[in-house]
Design a protein that fits this description.
Elements (H helix, E strand, L loop, with lengths): L1 H12 L10 H31 L9 H8 L2 H20 L10 H18 L8 H5 L1 H4 L1 H16 L2 H24 L1
Helix pairs in contact: 2-8, 2-9, 4-9, 5-8, 8-9
Length: about 180
């Protein structure tokens, strides 16, 4: 895991458009290692976000998932969160990255730009207030980190593997909630 983290941090210093030549099984192993890394980082960031919530910066009642659980049945929520959102978001935010592969300086800007856009689009999951705007870098930090990991996999393994990681990440988060909701 430490090697993967160092590799991705190194990649962030100088993102390039060079895919890895790996077998499908090796690619799947990298996806699962990246999933574990994503959850480890998200766990740490969720502590910080929980601290903000305890200080009254926002409440989860103001988060879009609360409304999602009120409006839709568990199968629809699963479909939207674990399948539809990952496919659409990956097509929008990671799909175009490789269009910039012919120009290294543009590729860097595209990689960082799409990552930041992906992270910040998630600020609309919150009820927009001045406090939310002020603390937005912290509130969207998990999505920014996930965006980096998804972008890395998109470039190194391909778009389908980024979609797979995104779907697994979202499904792992939503399934326990749906299980409790249904009981």
């Amino acid at each position: 895991m430490e090697i993967l983290l160092r590799t991705i941090v190194g990649y962030l210093k100088n993102p390039t458009c060079t895919p890895l030549e790996r077998s499908v099984s090796e690619k799947l192993k990298l996806v699962f290692k990246t999933l574990i890394l994503a959850f480890a980082i998200a766990f740490i960031l969720s502590i910080l976000i929980s601290i903000l919530e305890s200080f009254g910066v926002f409440t989860m009642d103001q988060h879009a998932t609360t409304q999602l659980f009120k409006d839709y049945s568990p199968p629809i929520i699963f479909l939207l969160v674990a399948i539809v959102a990952p496919v659409i978001e990956e097509l929008l935010f990671r799909g175009p990255i490789t269009w910039f592969c012919n120009n290294q300086s543009r590729f860097k800007y595209a990689f960082y730009g799409f990552t930041i856009l992906f992270g910040y689009i998630h600020i609309f999951n919150y009820e927009f207030t001045p406090k939310i705007l002020l603390f937005s870098p912290i509130l969207v930090a998990p999505q920014l980190v996930l965006g980096v990991l998804l972008g890395y996999l998109r470039v190194k393994l391909g778009l389908v593997y980024a979609m797979l990681l995104h779907a697994l990440f979202n499904a792992t988060l939503i399934v326990p909630s749906l299980m409790f909701l249904d009981s």
